[in-house]
Specification:
Strand content: 15-25%
Mean pLDDT: 83
Keywords: Membrane, Transmembrane, Transmembrane helix
Number of helices: 1
Structural class: alpha+beta
Low-confidence stretches: none
Shape: rod-shaped
Number of strands: 4
Length: about 90
């Protein structure tokens, strides 16, 4: 007795085999995605204003300085577009 191959089956039986194969592949992919742990959460670096080692920082519009009384910042210009904060004077230098 020989085992029937896919070519020996009727078109509807062949479609059923293909549909079940695709369903099994999708189920396996979803299962793997649910069981595999995701990447570690990304922790952003501290902003210069939150970093106590930064004594002076700027966003391109205003300049802030840290003193014993706390942070003091200049007023921004009218048409200034702020950029990313950057430390201008670290405490070591």
């Amino acid at each position: 007795m020989t085992t029937p191959t896919i070519q020996d089956q009727s078109p509807s039986a062949r479609d059923g085999v293909i549909a079940w194969s695709v369903a099994a592949l999708v189920a396996a992919t979803v299962l793997i995605g649910a069981l595999v742990p995701g990447p570690a959460p990304h922790h952003a670096a501290a902003k210069p204003g939150e970093d106590t080692a930064c004594l002076e920082w700027s966003d391109g519009c205003r300049v802030c300085q840290r003193s014993a009384d706390g942070a003091a910042c200049s007023l921004p210009g009218i048409a200034c577009t702020p950029t990313k904060d950057r430390c201008l004077r670290p405490s070591g230098g």
